[in-house]
Amino acid sequence: MDAGSFVAGPRPPGWPFEPITNELIWTTIGSGLYGNEKGYVAADVGPSHIPVSFHFSNPARGSNTCSGERAGPVIVTCTITQGVHANARFTVIPLVALPDGNDGDANNDNDGDNSDDTP
Fold this sequence. Notes:
Blueprint lengths: L4 E4 L18 E3 L7 E9 L4 E9 L6 E6 L3 E7 L7 E7 L25
């Protein structure tokens, strides 16, 4: 972090002993009396592990901002509330259908034989 510090997270979904969801959660605290939190969180998303980063800024004065960066076929959007206790929400949207564990071939080249299909 450039300013402030992480209070909790970021941590991978399902760690430890939590339900696995499509969420990455973290909490920060400012370095001053009224905030000043600035930094980013990097993650890999999807089965192809597309690198994304989530940037946030909650300055002691001025507007809170957020942005996302990506290195693959996804869109990263964000919204952030204003004020001292800000909440940011980042969303990652695939631009193309992401392949499943068997590269999109539900039958594993065994048309008519469904015994080894991936659910």
